[in-house]
């Protein structure tokens, strides 16, 4: 029987997280500021996207290297 293929992306992304600690810290700091916002207009979308951009930049070459 053939084994089901395993998606390597989640593990590759997890391995890239240590390289993106600065962006994650900025996101967490923003969350702290937004919690105190009374206007309801503040958000941390930019910081969240910066974090995932860092993850993608790290993971993309490793992920494509696994393709046949």
From TrEMBL:
<keyword id="KW-0249">Electron transport</keyword>
<dbReference type="GO" id="GO:0006122">
    <property type="term" value="P:mitochondrial electron transport, ubiquinol to cytochrome c"/>
</dbReference>
<dbReference type="InterPro" id="IPR036811">
    <property type="entry name" value="Ubol_cytC_Rdtase_hinge_dom_sf"/>
</dbReference>
<keyword id="KW-0679">Respiratory chain</keyword>
<keyword id="KW-0472">Membrane</keyword>
<keyword id="KW-0999">Mitochondrion inner membrane</keyword>
<dbReference type="GO" id="GO:0005743">
    <property type="term" value="C:mitochondrial inner membrane"/>
</dbReference>
<keyword id="KW-0813">Transport</keyword>
<dbReference type="InterPro" id="IPR003422">
    <property type="entry name" value="Cyt_b-c1_6"/>
</dbReference>
<keyword id="KW-1015">Disulfide bond</keyword>
<comment type="similarity">
    <text>Belongs to the UQCRH/QCR6 family.</text>
</comment>
<keyword id="KW-0496">Mitochondrion</keyword>
<dbReference type="Pfam" id="PF02320">
    <property type="entry name" value="UCR_hinge"/>
</dbReference>
<dbReference type="InterPro" id="IPR023184">
    <property type="entry name" value="Ubol_cytC_Rdtase_hinge_dom"/>
</dbReference>
<comment type="function">
    <text>Component of the ubiquinol-cytochrome c oxidoreductase, a multisubunit transmembrane complex that is part of the mitochondrial electron transport chain which drives oxidative phosphorylation.</text>
</comment>
<feature type="disulfide bond">
    <location>
        <begin position="30"/>
        <end position="44"/>
    </location>
</feature>
<protein>
    <recommendedName>
        <fullName>Cytochrome b-c1 complex subunit 6</fullName>
    </recommendedName>
</protein>
<feature type="domain" description="Ubiquinol-cytochrome C reductase hinge">
    <location>
        <begin position="7"/>
        <end position="68"/>
    </location>
</feature>
<feature type="disulfide bond">
    <location>
        <begin position="16"/>
        <end position="58"/>
    </location>
</feature>
């Amino acid at each position: 029987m053939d084994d089901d293929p395993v998606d390597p992306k989640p593990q590759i992304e997890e391995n890239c997280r240590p390289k993106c600690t600065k962006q994650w810290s900025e996101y967490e700091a923003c969350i702290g500021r937004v919690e105190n916002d009374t206007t309801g207009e503040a958000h941390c979308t930019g910081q969240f996207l910066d974090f995932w951009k860092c993850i993608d930049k790290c993971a993309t070459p490793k992920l494509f290297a696994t393709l046949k």
